[in-house]
Design brief:
With 460 residues, the protein is mainly beta. It folds into three domains: 33-218, Rossmann fold (3-Layer(aba) Sandwich), CATH 3.40.50; 226-317, Immunoglobulin-like; 322-445, no CATH class. Helix content is 14%, strand content 39%. The protein is built from six helices and 23 strands. The chain has helices at residues 53-72, 106-114, 124-134, 159-168, 186-192, 210-218; strands at 2-10, 14-16, 20-30, 38-45, 86-92, 96-98, 142-149, 172-178, 201-204, 226-235, 239-247, 251-254, 259-267, 273-283, 289-292, 294-300, 313-317, 320-322, 355-367, 373-382, 388-398, 407-419, 436-445. The strands form six sheets. A six-stranded mixed sheet has the order 6-5-4-7-8-9, sandwiched between helices. Helix 1 (53-72) runs antiparallel to helix 2 (106-114), helix 1 (53-72) runs parallel beside helix 6 (210-218) and helix 3 runs parallel beside helix 4 (159-168). The longest helix is centred in the N-terminal third of the chain and has 20 residues, at 53-72. It is elongated and about 100 Å long.
Length: 460
């Protein structure tokens, strides 16, 4: 079957600005279906939440799946599934129905899919039961259930027990979940599917993605496992790779702070086999937002399997940060080879006298949304007697933030220039002496909702 499922998951959906998370790459491979005949039961959710475009997109995806299997087994020209493999359709809502037996007829399978109509509740236990009943215990064919659903169980007994019995009997279970109106529970699908769940569960964010989900599961089914696998993982430059936690198969080389190369000699050549890679990444910039974790994932193998990894995103919360002053622009000076002296007129550059730069950061606590803040920083210098000397004052208008709740707002890089000729030290030409400074911060809202009452006095 070649590479029949790949996945990429992250350990959390939200991290702090300097936060870390685990990233997991998984893939599953199986021997080719031509020399290893397989019985496949497509179990399709036709509950009420599938009404409209979801059921139509489901039909397109299922038809695509059937076509790929027929072509992979060499029976497409005759309208059949060949090489000893068979397929069946089970659909379910309040109860499940065996819409076809295990058959090689493509038209029979597609007609059953075409006749599906949506309505009713969701009985997963009966769906698994009806699918299991279709398999012949005496058949040497591999046994696979592909369960598709868009919602949680709303009818019938607990399906966990039935799914566990199917796995125990050697049936491989894949789950395709649609984030539908009833709200698919990914943890439940993980529990039903053959482990590792990360390589046997696929989530379609919208019903328009269903055809791709079914195609991804079926398109490599004709290939004999995979050999000489190389996966090059490059993370978004806002992250860096800290460490590799696990490589179940093959070897991993960290080529840079943002790139890993995972090499696997072979996978799924003689039996269904999965591999996982876990590594830790850290967010390294100070920008807030929803960010893709990977810049790219490049896959290759000798069999030329087609692989598309998911593209997970994480919400990064760096708080509200303001940079009120830009750094001075640098001046570029070119030096040619073999020149030991270069003269450059820096007439456009302001040279400060000998001194120091004090850079301050201020955190404004619990600032309400949509309100600007007036911030004042004063800086004084102390002499040995505790007398204060004025050294600077900064007035800054801090822009409003638009988070839903009050947030701490960081104002960074507030710079004061302290020439040594203003120092209270006797030796004002040295940078080695200690200077004692006192900074004070004052702030208040610029925007407010208060309106002064207007008193109207009426004398009769």
């Amino acid at each position: 079957m070649g590479i029949n499922l790949v996945n990429k998951t992250i350990s959390t959906n939200e991290i702090a600005c300097d936060g870390t998370m685990e990233v997991t790459l998984t893939l599953t491979a199986s021997p080719d279906i031509v020399s290893n005949p397989t019985d496949i039961v497509l179990v399709l959710d036709r509950s009420g939440s599938m009404a409209g475009t979801p059921i139509e997109n489901l039909k397109s995806g299922a038809d695509k799946f059937i076509d790929i299997i027929a072509e992979a087994t060499g029976g497409a020209a005759m309208g059949e599934i060949g090489s000893g493999s068979r397929m069946a359709i089970v659909s379910f809502s309040d109860v499940a129905t065996q819409d076809t037996p295990l058959t090689t007829s493509v038209s029979q399978l597609k007609n059953a899919v075409s006749d599906l109509t949506a309505g009713g509740s969701t009985n997963h236990a009966d769906a698994f039961t009806k699918a299991i009943e279709l398999f012949d215990p005496l058949s040497a064919n591999a046994k696979v259930i592909v369960m598709f659903t868009d919602g949680e169980t709303t009818a019938g007994p607990d399906p966990d027990v039935v799914a566990a019995a199917a796995r125990a009997s050697g049936i491989i279970i894949y789950c395709i979940g649609l984030v539908g109106r009833d709200g698919v529970d990914e943890a439940t699908l993980d529990n039903w599917a053959t482990p590792p769940s990360a390589s046997h569960v696929l989530i379609a964010p919208t019903d328009q993605d269903l055809e791709q989900a079914f195609e991804t599961l079926a398109q490599n089914i004709s290939k004999p496992g995979a050999t000489n696998i190389v996966i090059e993982e490059t993370v978004n430059p806002d992250f860096k790779i800290l460490s590799v936690l696990l490589a179940e198969e093959g070897t991993v080389v960290k080529e840079s702070d943002t790139t890993l190369k995972w090499s696997i000699p072979q996978l799924g050549v003689t039996a269904n086999q999965s591999a996982a890679l876990k590594f830790v990444v850290e967010h390294i910039t100070d920008t807030t937002g929803i960010k893709k974790v990977n810049a790219s994932v490049v896959y290759s193998d000798l069999e030329q399997n087609h692989v598309v990894f998911p593209d997970p995103v994480v919400t990064v919360d760096c708080g509200a940060v303001v940079f009120p002053e830009d750094c001075p622009k640098p001046i570029n000076i070119a030096m040619d080879g073999c020149e030991d002296t270069v003269y450059y007129n820096m007439e456009d550059t302001v040279l400060e006298s000998v001194g120091r730069i004090l850079q301050l950061d201020v955190k404004l606590k619990d600032i309400c949304p949509r309100k600007r803040v007036a911030l004042c920083i004063t800086l004084n210098e102390l002499d040995e007697h505790g007398n204060e000397y004025k050294r600077g004052i900064k007035f800054i208008t801090v822009p409003a933030h638009y988070y839903e709740h009050c947030k701490d707002v960081e104002v960074r890089c507030i710079r004061f220039i302290l020439p040594e000729d203003l120092s209270t030290l006797e030796n004002t030409t040295s940078l080695c002496g200690q200077r004692q400074l006192v900074a004070r911060a004052m702030a208040h809202y610029v925007d407010y909702d208060f309106e002064c009452c207007k008193n109207h006095i009426t004398i009769s």
